[in-house]
Every structure is written in structure tokens, then in C-alpha cells.
Specification:
Number of domains: 2
Number of strands: 0
Order of helices and strands: HHHHHHHH
Radius of gyration: 20 Å
Largest sheet: none
CATH superfamily of the largest domain: RNA polymerase sigma factor, region 2, helix turn helix motif
Shape: globular
Number of helices: 8
CATH architecture of the largest domain: Orthogonal Bundle
């Protein structure tokens, strides 16, 4: 993404240029959708949340500081929207099959199946976290935001963000440990 082009589109959109705002939507729609999907866990709910986030951004755009990058602002809007939806119990969580496929060369069928199963386990573990921990994990590990950016996005103190991430990681590790397949003990004949 060209940062200069992003800023010029942001300035035009702030002046009411609908075409510029449309281009911003196209540039950032996948990032906004990904945040929503990883927090809500359901494609339809994520699409609805992403669309609503852009509507809210459009309506609030005149108050946006055009000297700041727009992507964190959009992620903040969609994150808060998703957390509000979870609090209101509106979304229906589903464990759709894994995350988007990797962009690397395709592994064999057994490896693909194992990866899909592991992705589903990770997705289920993340979806089982309380919403505040789910949001922290999403923003840190999937959106690569710094602790400071997460604190700003979630409007929480930095110490709370660090604590939430620590607890979320601990809970995830425990849940994934519970779902990990146990290895059978090695056969005594194999030791010879």
C-alpha cells in the first residue's frame, strides 16, 4: 500500500469525496474483515460488522485527523463494534473450517488435513476466550499491532493490555494442551 496515496485519499474523503472514500474501502476492506472474522468467528457476522464499520467511519469521517494513518482508526472502529456485538449476544459463533489457506506451495493431503484440524482447534480455542482476551490476541498476533497501538485501539491502559495478553496466551495454551492428541508410548520392540 502506498502511504502517500492513502493519505491523499484520506484528505479527499474528509472533504466529502465519495470516490476517494470508496477507494479507501477497497484498500482496507480485507484488513477490516479479517479483524471482524477473527473476533466474531463467523463469516456472515464478520461481513456485516465490516460493512457497518465502514458506514460508521464514513459518518464520522469529518472528525478524523487526516494527519494520522487511517488503518488503525478503521481497526479500532471494527474491533469496538465486534466487542459490542459480542456483549449484546447478537453474533452466532461458528467454527468455520480453519483460516484462509496458506500462500505457500500446497502440502500433501495428509499435511493439509492436519493443518485444517489444527487451525480449527486454534480457532475454537480463540473463540472460547472472553471477548477482551480475544480482541487482544487478534490485534497483537493477527494484526501485528504494538502494545501501545492495542492500548489506543481498545482505549485501555498499557498495563491492562499486557495483562490481558498474558492471560489470553496462558488460557490459549491450556486449551490447546487439552485438545492436543496424546502420543502413544513407544513400542518396546522399536527400542532395540
Amino acid at each position: 500500500m502506498n502511504i502517500a496515496n492513502d493519505r491523499s485519499l484520506t484528505k479527499l474523503a474528509a472533504q466529502g469525496d465519495q470516490n476517494a472514500f470508496g477507494e479507501l474501502v477497497q484498500l482496507h476492506q480485507s484488513a477490516v474483515f479479517n479483524v471482524a472474522y477473527r473476533i466474531l468467528g463467523n463469516q456472515q457476522d464478520a461481513e456485516d460488522a465490516a460493512q457497518e464499520a465502514f458506514v460508521r467511519a464514513y459518518n464520522a469521517f469529518k472528525s478524523f485527523d487526516t494527519h494520522r494513518p487511517i488503518r488503525p482508526w478503521l481497526k479500532k472502529i471494527v474491533t469496538n463494534l465486534c466487542l459490542n456485538r459480542i456483549k449484546a449476544h447478537r453474533p452466532t459463533l461458528s467454527l468455520e473450517n480453519g483460516l484462509p489457506p496458506p500462500k505457500e506451495p500446497k502440502p500433501g493431503p495428509e499435511a493439509q488435513t492436519a493443518k485444517r484440524e489444527r487451525d480449527a482447534q486454534v480457532r475454537a480455542a480463540i473463540l472460547s476466550l472472553p471477548p477482551r482476551y480475544r480482541a487482544a490476541i487478534e490485534l497483537r498476533h493477527f494484526q501485528d499491532l504494538s502494545y501501545e497501538e492495542i492500548a489506543e485501539t481498545l482505549e485501555k491502559p498499557l498495563s491492562t493490555v499486557k495483562s490481558d495478553l498474558f492471560r489470553a496466551r496462558k488460557m490459549l495454551a491450556e486449551r490447546l494442551k487439552e485438545t492436543a492428541p496424546t502420543q502413544p508410548p513407544p513400542n518396546s520392540k522399536d527400542r532395540i
